[in-house]
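Please predict the structure of the following assembly.
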Amino acid sequence: MASRKISYREAVNEALAQEMERDSTVIIMGEDVAGGAGGQGEDDAWGGVLGVTKGLYGKFPGRVLDTPITESGYIGAAVGAATRGLRPVAELMFIDFAGVCLDQIMNQAAKFRYMFGGKAVTPVTIRAMYGAGLRAAAQHSQALYPLFTHIPGLKVVIPSSPYEVKGLLAQSIRDNDPVIFCEHKAMYDVIGEVPEESYAIPFGEANIVREGDNVTVVAIGRMVSMAEEAAKKLESSGISIEIIDPRTVSPLDLDAILESVENTGRLVVVDEASPRCNIATDISAQVVSEAFGDLKAPVKMVSPPHVPVPFAGSLEDLYIPSAQDIVNAVKTVTEWSK
Amino acid sequence: MTQTLSTLGSDAPDASALSEAQLLDVYRTMRSIRAFEDRVHEEFATGDIPGFVHLYAGEEASATGVCAHLDQDRDTIASTHRGHGHCIAKGVDIKPMMAEILGKTTGSCHGKGGSMHIADLSKGMLGANGIVGGGPPLICGTALAAKIKGDGGVGVAFFGDGASNQGTTMEALNLASVWNLPAVFVAENNGYGEAAASTWSVSADNIADRAAGFGMPGVIVDGFDVFAVYEVAGEAIRRAREGGGPTLLEVKFTRYYGHFEGDQQTYRGKDEIQNAKENLDCLKRFRKRVADSGRLTDAQLDEVDAQVAQLIEEAVTEAKAAPVPGPEDLVTDVYVKY
Amino acid sequence: MTNDQIQRVTMPKWGLSMESGKVTEWLVSEGDELEKGQDVADIDTDKIAGTLESAWSGVVRALVVEAMVDVPVGGTIAVVAPADVPQEEIDAVVAAAKEQLASGAIEDESGPKVAEVHVDGRSISYAVLGDTESEATPVVFVHGYGGDKNSWLFVQEPISADRATYALDLPGHGASSKDVGDGSVATLASSLVGFVNELGLPRVHLVGHSVGGAVATVAAADPATLGKVASLTLISPAGYGPDINAGYIRGFAEAETRRELKPHLQQLFADQSLVNRQLIDDLLKYKRLDGVDAALALIVAALLDGERSAVNVTAEQASFGGKTVAVWGAEDKVVPASNAGSLEGKATVHIVDGAGHMAHAEKPQAVIAAIKEAIGAA
């Protein structure tokens, strides 16, 4: 395949453009996704608050819609339109805004298929920015994917690189269930090799980012890069870790994790979401339940402290799980004895 | 552009706009709803119906008068928890509805939705909705889809006086105006949100007064008069179909039964319901109007009554005999692997 | 002014996406006499491990880097010169090389250049390496089922030392168009013929692996290439016998996950440890591209007749009648070496121990020797 290096942001834009090209029922809506409706200047001045959707307004007339700041209104509209043959990609600018449209996602979109006896198809994709690192403070830095993982009927996707984000977004749009697509706001400028052609990465298939024999490290989203950094640091100590990126926390490829733990006997889970009831707790519980006999040490979870995300850089940097935190957790499980 | 028109009173509209066949259809729909609801009321009292039921008896003219203008394939409606009337008026089959209310596999939703979630997307009925104000944003979506597809379809959101205060409803009104959607919003003001009177909970004198605030026409109509409803709904739907944008209709009437079955309704005035049944009832008024104008005979209408009674009887018998869903049905219609 | 006699041994580019490698073991020492073709060092990249053959002759005057140090492609790792070149000049070259490595300013000019042509409405991607002005007849490499132009990692560079070399992506593969028509060897062969003509090459040597071997054979016998194909080198070619591992062919196409794909890939090699995470990952990325599933399904349907090969190109090979050399891994589990019997008397056949279906990856020296034999190079 022809590959070249582009950024996470460009990969999202390219996935949207290629899917919109391929399927005329795909539309985009969100606050300022064009960014200029009704003003005297350009209609698409912004192309999204961080420029992710720039250029699509002109390429696909009538299919990129600015909305007023009314999440319930337009997320609900995206859900409704999805039941009528469109494939809307609605942008929830920050996942933190889930509070003002949660009903539309949780009680409407998530439940139609089951509640209506299997007769409803709701192929809506909701893209949302998540994560800390940009000093955006408590109400704009959360990693709320555990909330959505908890709701039956939703699929939750957390891409960790430019290659992943393009293929997973294509798959999300093609999928007939509602998908919550979580883009880490601090990753938009990360560069990686991405095929020019269109491709889709299947859901429920974890990626083994790095093979190793001593400890299984499951990492979510941006934490995959932290884990890779930790892996390099651990090489000199002679510890080899196997890094697993689940890609989708719902559906979750538990088998890949269990297979790895069968080999290593030790598990560390790294999750940027707040520690109570996050994905790390979910995966840990499932692994202990299914593979207790394979474990040679307790499972360690690496998560932030249970506080709102702080504003000051000095504090935020302490908040976000670091490569060193992962190294410490790995050493704890390798050095553990009764 | 925003005027509040008032068409109260029983004299203004006449029956001449409808053909004999249409008149019979209108009567059949109203009678079906009444008979259905009365029977559900009886069955509920025996303890055979699980969960919550909210009955539409008394309000038939609203669903009937509006849906008479709607096509099965290109027009959509969203409903409320009090959805049986909307379902029947939109053409959802009565037998599967009864089965659904009884929680049987032959139900419209295979027994997985129940009274509050009866839906038939193939007939453009987006479901009764357990969330107050859940419907209007969805209709913004279906109307958007119709606009993009260019098929002339219209979306109608039925909601109650309680929902008229919900943020979701207001966001939907704003969005429908801003996007100039082919939508009609029908506020069914039956006088009570649940137990609190709408005269108390709605801050404006009339719900329709709010239309101006959302850039659309507002119309008040006597909800006991199916011809009045037919006329104003026809105008609003025609305006929407022709690209003239949304309208807010306020239908004023009352419900005969409680908010839910089991509600003793001690919050209502003495004789309030009795008065409505004797002097305002939509079926009585219809019969008088067509008899007076000689359009239909009593015999024709009695024939319809008998047919409907037969259908309801069969529906109940068959529903009671139908199987309940089994364990294997529990985890279908949603992807389960997590 | 640098002495022309001073030659730099550089980190080779084994594959388009290779960016750096490390010497895992030096096989020569400072002061050793070095000949062309001699093993210089074992090198590890993130894709594959292999041995660097010398393209230089003289005395090893300096080893610029130690083992286990990452060196970008194109970086100087050793200096070769005649014994009489003054030491100060050698030291200057070494110092400059070390500084360049430290600063990270290496221009990677050494690798193949990728380009595209259009043949029968399909875009064909290819990698060209070597002097396109050279008068020596160029070599065209044709990969096999599920492969791409990068399959020729170890082989294209040495062969390109004295002539132009072209490695193309067949339709349905790599970066070429994913439209394979009816998926038959004939269709793929006409793309190959079109490719040669589109590039205006008057005469070529064809090297084909697996299905690519059948494709090259059919192309060589095509009237449109009459007189153009100077020789045919076949590596574990399909189409020379009925025996084929249908389970592998179907399994590769149908596998959707790492778990499903790995056991199939392991059948490709005598040394199963060559099936590493990177290889599996690259193949999954290829298989995910839109259109690949459909393309592979068509090719599989055209390739197999039940559990046997539906393709037979022995008649085409006979009609070609030109110099033909075949190399077959003795442990080939995909297209068994027993098929080579059909080439008796028509081609020189080398069976190579310690190699499976991918001799050009497992025993590149043997394949390079076979190609040189076919093209008549010294």
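Chains B and C do not touch (no CB pair under 8 Å). Strands of chain B lie at 4-7, 76-78, 155-160, 183-189, 218-222, 247-252.
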